[in-house]
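Lab manual, section 2.4: Encoding a predicted structure.

Procedure: take the sequence of the chain (301 residues), apply the prediction step described in section 2.3, and record the output as structure tokens. A sample record is shown.
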Amino acid sequence: MVRVTAGQAAFSYHLEKGVLYDKYQAESRYVIKERKIERAMRKVVIAVSLTALLAFGIAAQKQSKPWSEWSEKDAEKVLNDSAWGQTQTDTNTSEMIYSPTTGTAASGTGARNTRASTPGVRDDQTDRNTNRLKEGAYNQAVGINYRVRFLSAKPIREAFAAMILQRQGSPSAAEQVKTQMAQFVDRDFGNYIVVAVGYDASDQRLSGKAFQDFSGAVFGSLKNNTYLERKDGKRVFLIDYRAPVADGLGAKFVFPRTVGGTPFLKRDSGEVRFYSEVGPNVKLNRRFKVSDMVYQGNLEY
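Recorded output:
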């Protein structure tokens, strides 16, 4: 029989107590940590829920707000940065850093004919000089914005109407314009999809080039390189083109809405790309997410 002394018993008691205490401490720390994680997760869930509810409320508010109450900022957002209207910005940075006009192209104006020693540099400088002789030097980055919009989508027509309404000087004039614009907003485009493209530039020389391309384009020159393309690769090609006129809407590209009796776009179509080689200076390429094009319960395009 093994005898346990009082000292051994006391040591064993304290050891057991210490182990139990350490175990209790570890469990307590684990419980505290779990509770902290649980509280943090609750906060995240609440924050996400509030954000979703707020976003839903804002979207619902925007949908229910009639176009006649839109501000100019509201209208510009729909026209230039929305599911139905996007902006393609082309920037010319070739002359962002100053360089003198030298080389063969400059000699036509009496400048000294000095050639760069490197062929690639010489060719670039010659092209730059030629452009400067034609249109003058930029000496800075310049850009042009192309506004690509689905005119056959109701929100775009509402935005155009709202912009016009905002510019009326008197309540009576605004009321008259509102009545006229209502017909434009509610217009039925039937079996056609119409994409309107406008443009604005920081330099009139760029605007002039765009004007030449849009005004000079005809259906025959566009029909093989202008189309709408779905995510699955299916395309519909241009069936009509209208050059810009003084209506503020821009050039109009017309496409069929149905293919084989079926709508070209559905909510599950993924995305649609508008592509057009209008001319030597204008090439357009914009993508739109189809699922975002639902407006007041309808797929608008």
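Check your result against the sample. Residues 158 and 207 are 26 Å apart (CA to CA).
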